[in-house]
Amino acid sequence: MRHKKIIWITAVTAAVAFAMLLRAPAKAQSAGKVTGESAHQTVWGGIYTDAQASRGIQSYMGNCSPCHGTDLEGVAHLKGDDFMERWREFDARSLYDFISTSMPRKRNGSPNSPGSLSPDTYLDIIAYIFRANSFPSGGQDLTAEAMKNIQVEGKDGPKSVPNGALVQLVGCMRMKGADWVLTDASEPARTSTSATSTPEEMEKAKAKGLGILQFTLQNFGYLGKDFDPVAFAAQKIQTKGFVTRQPGRNRIDVTSLALLGVACP
Predict the structure, then answer these.
(1) Residue 51 has pLDDT above 50, yes or no
(2) CATH of the domain at 90
(3) Is 34 exposed, middle or buried (0-12, 13-18, 19+ CB in 10 A)?
């Protein structure tokens, strides 16, 4: 009897050890997934420091307040609902790229001109704008590189981009009735440029999976008189344009199309 008991305990121990072994890869995979997801942050994740925002106050007052006001509510409001609606669903790097190439405007004999400030000064100003919008501070200074993976979105999470926004998306171009449409389309994401996609944008588009949406494509005349939509038929394409969502007729006013080298099923 004792001999049988020992065998039974040994068998149970082996079964438990085997079960733990089976669970180990799943746990490792889960940890990897969490690590991958953590690369994506939002403006609510503590992405700048209080010291950086405090440095930004003086730079903002000297370079930005003549137009945008000392309370950030002058021309093109830089805080509140107007700011969020203008920049939500963009990555924060888009904000940096816009400000660092177009601000400050030259006014009233000021020696400043667009792009004339240092990269660190632009980052300090943006940190101050973020603090003015009640985005929480954190333990590391905001950097231009980190901003590529930081999403500007409301506290209640991401939303569909607003009508009229300039977007990019992937899908399959097909003829339906009298219209060319983008089928199996991904959710539109905001972009800052309407022109041909950059190499970085193209790489991301190639890696992006198809979706379940459909958009009518229009305004092909913008692409030039030699554009031939037939060459894009049944191909996965990177699309840029202005989005409009209406019941029964979502559409994109096209500004750029690019083949991704993949035939659609």
Answers:
(1) yes
(2) 1.10.760.10
(3) exposed
Q: Do 143 and 171 fall within a single domain?
A: no
Range of the domain at 198: 166-263
Prediction pTM value: 0.75
pLDDT in tens, 167-211: 999 999 999 999 999 999 999 999 999 999 999 999 999 999 999
Q: Does any domain span residue 4?
A: no
- Alpha-carbon span 259 to 265, nearest angstrom: 15
Is residue 247 in a domain?
yes
Is residue 224 domain-resident? Answer: yes
Work out the angle at residue 195's Cα, subtended by the Cα atoms of residues 167 and 118, and round it to the nearest 5 degrees: 90
**129 three-state secondary structure:** helix
Per-residue pLDDT at 33 exceeds 70: no
Evaluate whether residue 18 is within a structural domain.
no
3-state secondary structure of 140: coil
